[in-house]
Amino acid sequence: GKISQDFCTNLFSLPQENHQVVAVAGRSAERAKEFAARFSITKSYGCYEQLAQDNDVDIVYVGTIHPTHFDCCMKMFEYNKHVLCEKPLTMNALQTSKLIETARSKKLFLMEAIWNRMSPFILKLKELIASNTIGDVKLVSSGTGFIPPARIDRLYNPDLGGGATLDIGIYPIAMASLVFGGGRPESIKATGYLTDTGVDELASVTIKYPGNRVAHLCFSFNLKLVNTAQVCGSDGRLTLSEPFWCPTQLQTPSETLDFPFPKPDLDMLFS
Q1: Integer distance in angstroms from the first to the last C-alpha of the chain?
Q2: Strand pairing of 59-62 and 82-85?
């Protein structure tokens, strides 16, 4: 529930006339009730289907553990709810295709919660690329890696969607997809190593896109990487400061742009 708490913390920092949080659900009715009390949410449920049946709910944020994303989203679709789902959207491509197919057939909104795509620094990055500030973009280089203060068992469990790729690899991969317009890769080459539980602790990936464009990406949940992102073109480079998925600075060939984050009213559980 920590990510869901941070989601609500940020949501409540926005103008309240834009939204209303009317209900929360969890696997435990008691924990759902505690969550509701923390954010002054009127209704709480100990079952996801009860939330799906609530006629006051228009859209649902799914912040459950990775393996449950698919079933939760499908349950919401069953009751014609729009869905914003935490990353990774699902555990595999087959599940993702099924979600997209269902959402389209029922004309429902579905989005993976890659929140930084709506952030000012990403909008500015896209503007600079579109205006040819750095010329013909040929390379995206980024990495996401950290050393946790203590072992996080979930990351080592393949049944819970553990491993660097599913947990944090989404950030570099999404950056490459954004810069190169979501184009279909010509080739993907990956290397790295697995833990004794069978999940990837380190992955290094090279993706080649049409037009001789390349993304070099790296992710690890047991190494402290640089955690910046660079977009390189024929006339210069754009650099997002660490951590690049929520940076405070964007460096261009001519200047450094600042993007300070507003301070929420409540403490964040993840920085």
Answers
A1: 15
A2: parallel
Secondary structure of residue 240 in the 3-state scheme: strand
How many angstroms separate the CA atoms of 191 and 142, rounded?
16
For 251, phi then psi, to 5°, come to -95, 125
Q: Are 170 and 88 in contact (CB under 8 A)?
A: yes
Task: Please give the share of the chain, as a percent, with pLDDT higher than 90.
Answer: 83
Neighbouring-strand partners of residue 231: 140, 238
Contact partners, residue 261, CB within 8 Å, separation at least 6: 246, 248
| Predicted TM-score (pTM) of this structure | 0.89
| Cα 69 from Cα 73, distance rounded (Å) | 6
CB 164 within 8 A of CB 201: yes
Residues catalogued as catalytic:
87
Give the tokens for residue 170.
């989404």
- 21-51: pLDDT as tens digits: 999 999 999 999 999 999 999 999 999 999 9
Provide CB contacts within 8 A for 2, sequence distance 6+: 269, 270
| Identity of the amino acid at 168 | I
pLDDT digits (tens, 9 = 90+) for 138-184: 999 999 999 988 888 999 999 999 999 999 999 999 999 999 988 89
**pLDDT above 80 (res 256):** yes
Question: How many Å apart are CA 266 and CA 144, to the nearest integer?
Answer: 26
